[in-house]
Design goal:
Distance between the termini: 45 Å
Strand order of the largest sheet: 5-10-12-13-14-11
Radius of gyration: 25 Å
Binding site for a divalent metal cation: 65, 103, 327, 331
Structural class: alpha/beta
Number of domains: 3
GO molecular function, one term: metal ion binding
Keywords: Metal-binding
CATH superfamily of the largest domain: NIF3 (NGG1p interacting factor 3)-like
Helix content: 25-40%
Shape: globular
Largest sheet: 6 strands, mixed
Protein name: GTP cyclohydrolase 1 type 2 homolog
Family: Belongs to the GTP cyclohydrolase I type 2/NIF3 family.
Length: 364
């Protein structure tokens, strides 16, 4: 299996098209066409993680966080980032990161937090916009079902819990081919009228190349008439953070103890207690202060995230319990998610879970 084939598998879980603009995801170091001898899954790629990969004959590191976040002008080994890149290149080790693509995935970082906490009835906290596209095409009515099925097979027509969704309109199309044309129906130089079906179908933006390939391969016409538009609909299964509920409301002090125990953190920094039970909880792995107002507007009783600054806690305004559990702690189960996913997909070589603790913060 090639590195690029492993990346294709990982894109089934978290397509890179949904990474945030500020991020640096994808293959950061290495050759996409290299044959994989083993995979090491980690939260961060540090020098000792590269050493771990070398020791275990793994030439691909799948890392949640990107080791290269902004441009490198020099690689001289003066910084920890440069040393990691140097060592990886020297030992022909590829490094891949899916960071915010996995943050935005329905089955990604925040789903893992919800699962660990036992939150039900989950919804995306901040749905992404402009990620749904619509295709309209015109097909001879006798070929409409075949084209439609090809589009379904390519992934079009999925709306929430439903698939194979489309809307068809019957009508009559006209065309006249010029001298260079080779019409499948009708004769060149003569106007032709054909009973046609207009197919309208939505699809996720990362599937556009596959959708168009299926359209062109299944459509009988020499020239395929089609339109693609980007919809303003929010994507309810894609975006930052999640919000869910406990089966039963629990006391807020009990909630904080449960949170500390379950998320394996030595410290929970929180805003003032509200003297009310906790049932509806918003979560956002990593730095999440930007979502405080969103959590409040969603009527969350508590919002769990990390990296809150001093003044962020004032934003609670006695309406929500803010709980900062630490950046690493909020994302620590992510490597388990990636490891489990790859283990199910790949059976012909080792997929190892890194045993290196990459948390840079210690508590006294």
């Amino acid at each position: 299996m090639k590195v690029k084939e492993v990346i294709s598998l990982l894109e089934e879980l978290a397509p890179l098209a949904y990474s945030e603009d500020f991020d640096n995801t994808g293959l950061l170091v290495g050759d996409a066409n290299a044959t994989v001898s083993g995979i090491l899954v980690t939260l961060d790629t540090l020098e000792n993680v590269v050493d771990e990969a070398i020791e275990n004959n793994c030439n691909l590191i799948v890392s949640f966080h990107p080791i290269v976040f902004s441009g490198l002008k020099k690689i001289t080994g003066k910084t920890y980032v440069e040393r990691v890149v140097q060592k990886a290149i020297k030992h022909d080790i590829a490094i891949f990161s899916n960071h915010t693509a996995l943050d935005n995935s329905w089955n990604g970082v925040n789903a893992m937090i919800c699962e660990k906490l036992g939150l039900k009835n989950r919804k995306v906290l901040i749905p992404q916009n402009e990620t749904i596209k619509k295709l309209i095409t015109f097909v001879p009515s006798k070929d409409a079902e075949n084209v439609q099925n090809a589009l379904f097979a390519a992934g079009a027509g999925n709306i929430g819990n439903y698939e194979n969704c489309s809307f068809n309109i019957e009508g009559k199309g006209s065309f006249k081919g010029n001298d260079a044309s080779s019409p499948v129906i009708g004769k060149k130089g003569e106007i032709h009228f054909e009973e046609e079906t207009q197919i309208g179908i939505t699809f996720a933006k990362h599937l556009q190349n596959n959708i168009l390939k299926a359209l062109f391969e299944s459509h009988p016409y020499e020239e395929v008439a089609y339109e693609i538009t980007t919809l303003e609909n929010q994507n309810q299964h894609l975006g930052m953070g999640m919000i869910g509920e406990f089966d039963k409301a629990i006391d807020e002090k009990e909630f904080l103890q449960f949170l500390k125990r379950t998320m394996k953190t030595d410290c929970v920094r929180h805003s003032a207690l509200l003297e009310k039970p906790i049932k509806k909880v918003a979560v956002l792995g990593g730095s999440g202060s930007f979502a405080i107002e969103v959590a409040k507007n969603a009527s969350a009783d508590a919002f769990i995230s990390a990296d809150f600054k001093y003044h962020d806690f004032f934003k609670a305004e006695n309406t929500v319990l803010l709980a900062d559990i630490g950046h690493y702690e909020s994302e620590q189960f992510t490597k388990e998610l990636l490891h489990s996913f790859l283990k199910k997909k790949i059976t012909n070589f080792a997929v190892l879970l890194s045993q290196t603790n990459t948390n840079p913060i210690s508590y006294l």
